[in-house]
């Protein structure tokens, strides 16, 4: 009994130590720290959007339409007099909602399908690869435009398109890693002892393939945000009057001869989001991947 308790305490302390060490390595990396700051600002702006400005993202004030930045409207107003900063903050909430739902579902489904393709029978691997190749043969934007044209623009359809096109990417990566681990000695030993395939996948494969997948998912967030913004820019994303960075960018493009602030307000968040998640993802990859750790 005392040995079991001691093992649990040792395991807990080692995992806590690893989390603290990983975080300290992240904040010591200049680009990693910059990425963490940018991502934190994005999350704070999206989560507390209702409390950071006194305006509603849908409130109209036609008398102050296309107003320049001022103390009352830090980023000015759009063509309908809506506060631009408020719409940017709420647009960040929409972008993160799309990224969170689509990447989470695509990651889980891709993880399961990838392990089944890599560890399962040959015929199952061939069938899944055929489906993956068929889906990835269509460019994402073209596939999205075709599907949304048939069903109509909506936030759910944008999420669905991203999920469908992202699953093959994650599944192929997991399949490759699963096939590399399939003939390892610990897997062969587990099979010789009669361990079920479900337990082998859960205990022996999942911990070894999920780490790189999370790093890839974090670096895919700006890609998903860009896809959502691009579809909204084309009028195929979220429906007005819902705030979106792409819709703000489209409005700024239409009135760029009158005021440049809408283009800046719609474009800068996309740039900062891309830089933040890319820098943080690169730093996490260097920390979590033993082959790329610095200083070893």
Structural commentary:
- The chain has 296 residues and is mostly helical.
- It has one domain (39-56, 66-292): MetI-like (MetI-like fold, Orthogonal Bundle), CATH 1.10.3720.
- 75% of the residues lie in helices and 0% in strands.
- It has eleven helices and no strands.
- The chain starts with a helix and ends in an 8-residue tail after the last helix.
Q: Kindly give the count of domains.
A: 1
Q: What's the Cα radius of gyration?
A: 23 Å
Instruction: Give the CA-CA distance, first to last residue.
Output: 38 Å
Q: In the CATH hierarchy, what is the architecture at level 2? A: Orthogonal Bundle
* Sheet of most strands: none
Instruction: Look up the CATH topology.
Output: MetI-like fold
Give the tally of β-strands: 0
- The oligomeric status of these chains comes to single chain
Report low-confidence residues grouped into runs of 5 or more.
1-18, 292-296
In the CATH hierarchy, what is the superfamily? MetI-like
Tertiary shape: elongated
Overall helicity: over 70%
Give the C-level CATH assignment: Mainly Alpha
- What is the helix tally? 11
Sketch the topology as an H/E string, one letter per element. HHHHHHHHHHH
Strand content: under 5%
Structural category is mainly alpha
- Give the overall average pLDDT: 80
